[in-house]
Design goal:
The protein has 611 residues and is α+β, with helices and mostly antiparallel strands. The chain has helices at residues 41-51, 53-67, 79-90, 98-112, 206-224, 242-256, 287-305, 326-358, 379-385, 388-394, 412-428, 453-459, 506-514, 520-526, 545-548, 573-586; strands spanning 20-23, 30-33, 70-73, 114-121, 128-134, 139-141, 152-155, 168-171, 182-188, 231-234, 278-281, 365-368, 436-442, 492-499, 517-518, 556-565.
Amino acid sequence: MAMNKNMIGNINLESDISAKIIEVANKDWVEYGNAEWANRYPDFLIDLYYGSSTHSAIVNATAEMVAGKSIEVTDTEDLNNLVKIKKFFANINSNENVNDMVKKVAFDYKLQGAFALNIVYNRAKTAISEVYHIPVEKIRSGKPNVMGRVEEYFVSSDWSDLRNNEPVAVPAFNTNDRTSPSQIMYVKSYSPSLDLYGNPDYSSGCNWMLVDSKIAEFHLNSISSGFTGGHFISFANGIPTAQERNQIENNLKKKFSGAENAGKMILSFSDDNTKTPTITPLQQGTQHEQYIALQELMVQNVLTAHRVTSPMLFGIKSENGFGSNANELNDAFEIYLNTVVKPMQEVILKTLSKILSVNNMDLPIEFVQNKPLNSRFDMATLKEVMTQDEIREELGLKALETGEETQEEESEEVQMSKQSQLDSFLSSHGESMEAYDILNEDDSLEESEEFDFELELNNNHIELASVGGAYPNRKSEQDGTSKQKDNNNIYRVRYKYVGNPSPEREFCQKMLSSNKVFRKEDIIKMSTMKVNEGWGLKGADTYSIWKYKGGGACKHSWRRFILVQKGKRPKNSDLVITTTAARSQGFKTKVNEQEVPVAPTDMPNKGFVNK
């Protein structure tokens, strides 16, 4: 074949990255991939995640939003099932609780458009004993039967190397056929033409995410390869062989490309000036401007593919969409929450409810949502750069009416009075936990002011405990005794002020620095004292410290500790604590039970009551 004397390297600009489902005759599973990533489309999505910084930022933040703070049971009337669900969720498998597992599930669901769970039955196969998360990239669907149902899935740790990682068949989740104690539940959202595998909601923007990674590669190559797209070199002394061309190219790269070779001279020797090599610089005057424009276009298209309402929610700066105003960010968060996050949460909740129903634990569950930050600056900074009305707007409050004033700096006498009352209280109340063993600590979720957790805890103690000595610290009116007469091991319940470690308010500073735990009646007693004046209703000097802590926009809460004398842990204490916690959530009261564990900054109107 004659050699083309005007040879030039060709570049393939075709790009087919859409997912395809292929049934191969000699394989039991259905392949899922594209031209470059044969049967490895989930790996392609992972590669895309690591290659695009914009894309990965959105995936990470969305997964956190979907996972939320926790999953809670909303119906607390059925105490028996409530206790069962809490125990099941606390040990969903041997390594994790339900919140740990849901974080992985949420990440897979956002990145891959699907998630998979390994369902493990007990020995009698009457109930589900454990649930494990399985990375989606390790699973392929078996071929559907005549009814279109998938009866088994195949699991391999590496689908690119099946010789060393042979796929293992695992039956699909089926409550009517529990022959196998281990089954796989594969969950996905509906996607046209993809009835076996999940498809991420951002799939239409995958090309732009590739652009993001290629832009980064271009800039890296521009630094490390000085000749990349910069010069055109033509030799006029004949056409060398393919091997000679490669050798010349490698020699040029080795000598003159790269940041370390900048400024080197190029020498050429020839006995015929008509055959000297020609080096033509390529025009690059506006190339950087083209990439800046492409970068902006790429970011906007990636945001659109993810249905992002405000890039600031994900730490991405952009001149488009919502601004950084707190109200606009909250609006953007609500839109994204309702259009993207909640639909994904509903799918996860339905999956967990299906698992609970197998175990006859049919109670409604819901996510406790994360909330966006309300302000990025402390109050001192805001006072320096914002007007009073702007600060009130930032806090979600109405502007003051004409003639209306806020509370001014307190007089020295008032300061001394407040200090004396708070200091006096802290000197005579509270205690340390050194003399106790901590059995349990939590955020006092849904415990109302009227509920006597300590008395209920002791009354629920049904097992005889080893005899204990006297308690060294003061005894609470709430310190109950077990209904078992011989039981001297009494549970103690104390509460600690926790939250923002660097508060501005004197009340919060002193409560934290005291490092004490308090009885509930002592906390309630503070509500009748002037320990934090001016933060009550209409500027009152007293208010419920149990509910509102340090006042409006306070970022602190009460954390509950269950204590016993050191070395005197009662039998069945876990069951007693779980049962009592369940009853505390089922306790009915006229006040809002959610106010106690919630920091005022997360309450409606940020906990402000001085209207």
